[in-house]
Design a protein that fits this description.
Elements (H helix, E strand, L loop, with lengths): L1 H25 L3 H4 L5 H5 L1 H26 L5 H21 L4 H29 L6 H18 L9 E9 L2 E8 L3 H24 L6 H23 L7 H21 L8 H7 L20 H24 L8 H11 L4 H8 L3 H15 L4 H11 L1
Antiparallel strand pairs: 1-2
Helix pairs in contact: 1-4, 1-10, 4-5, 4-10, 5-6, 5-10, 6-7, 6-8, 7-8, 8-9, 9-10, 11-15, 13-14, 13-15, 14-15
């Protein structure tokens, strides 16, 4: 039963990804979105932009719900990232429909509440995906810095340190704040630039320490970082009535959510230590529903000779692996069986057929093996053996 649920759950994840991705891309083309509106509404570009922000806020809320449904092992930082994107888009929408300066400033503070903490949450999410540990005091410093920057960004209406002057204007009947930046506005730029550097540094460290499972995962992380950097720089130099960062944030969410799903499909749960993985996934007690009992086929003498040669080679590799990773001794007997088949360079289905278990059970044992041996993939395991040779 667990096996079929896993297959259903995986299918459900990718259907959800597809639906949310289409909705996010659909919002990039306002003229298409508003084709169903009346001619009067279409002629009013401001209403359209406000409606785009409303749709993006709804999509952001769906992303929060999608994360709760699709991701098996949830991470608090990614959840907070999704919530912050929802807050940002809600603030953009509230600002667009504001009628007074007080309302617009309040909406601006809401948008800044999300946009200030969003880089912090995105950085911590990337840290989690890259399986890098940070000391608690460092996280506390980063959080304190985010709180300080938000207080500064929320000061307009009370102090003139962030905006020297701020007035409410209407462009095509859509509310916008006309701002003259104050001395402390540069703090926000420095803050964002610092997090961009931290994110890129984290990805580089994860590659150097071989913390990421594959190059595809690295590429997706780089796309997340550079996408937001590019959009942010473009908006600094090219005037546009629409905040395209609201879309890039959602695309970043989709990529990170997809990356999370891919890593879980590898049997690796980002941010979870070896101990937590091993305690959450039973080592020796596997449900009988996952076990497929089949009679062994007859083996010819030639096949038997080849099997003996293969066993001898695997034994040699196991001895070398024990010298490199003493934690091999902590593996359960079933995990050692799976490891031996992995050393024969067999795929998951082949291992399942050989040991008469389901692929889901193989995935569970593989996750335990990786966690105990301190590796993230089979390629990294073979790389360690190659270095020993």
């Amino acid at each position: 039963m667990k096996f079929f649920w896993s297959e259903y759950h995986s299918t459900k994840i990718y259907k959800l990804y597809s639906m949310l991705f289409v909705m996010a891309v659909y919002c990039m083309f306002p003229s298409q979105v508003f084709a169903v509106q009346s001619e009067a509404a279409i002629s009013d570009g401001s209403v359209n932009m406000a409606f785009v922000y409303a749709i993006l806020a709804v999509v952001s809320l769906l992303m929060v719900a999608g994360y709760g449904i699709a991701v098996q092992k949830k991470d608090i930082w990614m959840l907070l990232l999704f919530v912050s994107v929802f807050i940002v888009n809600t603030g953009y929408f509230a600002l667009a429909v504001s009628t007074t300066l007080e309302e617009a400033l309040l909406a601006n503070r809401i948008a800044y509440l999300g946009s200030v903490f969003l880089p912090f949450f995105m950085f911590m999410t990337i840290i989690t995906v890259c399986r890098i540990s940070l000391p608690k005091w460092f996280v506390a410093i980063l959080l304190s810095g985010s709180v300080a920057v938000f207080i500064i960004a929320a000061s307009p209406g009370y102090l003139d340190c962030y905006y020297k002057e701020v007035t409410l204007v209407f462009v095509n009947e859509m509310a916008k704040l006309h701002k003259v930046y104050g001395a402390l506005h540069k703090v926000y730029y420095i803050y964002l630039f610092g997090y961009f550097v931290l994110m890129l540094g984290t990805v580089w460290i994860s590659v150097y320490r071989q913390k990421v499972v594959s190059h595809k995962h690295v590429a997706m992380l780089l796309v997340v970082v550079f996408l937001n950097i590019a959009i942010w720089f473009i908006e600094q130099f090219i005037y546009c009535e629409f905040e395209f960062l609201s879309i890039s944030y959602i695309v970043s969410e989709l990529l990170l959510l997809l990356l999370y799903g891919m890593m879980q499909d590898y049997g690796i749960f980002p941010g979870h230590s070896a101990e937590s993985i091993c305690t959450s996934q039973t080592e020796t007690e596997i449900s009988t529903a996952d076990i497929r009992v089949e009679p062994p086929e007859a083996v010819s003498p030639m096949d038997d000779k080849e099997d003996n040669d293969c066993v001898s080679e695997v034994d040699t590799m196991m001895k070398k692996l024990q010298e490199i990773c003493p934690a091999v001794h902590t593996l359960s007997s079933r995990e050692k069986d799976v490891l031996c088949e992995m050393l024969k360079d067999k795929k998951r289905k082949e291992i399942a057929d050989t040991l008469y278990i389901s692929e889901n059970t193989v995935k569970t044992h593989t996750a335990n093996i990786y966690a105990k041996l301190g590796v993230t993939s089979k390629s990294e395991l073979f790389y360690k053996l190659a270095q020993k040779q």
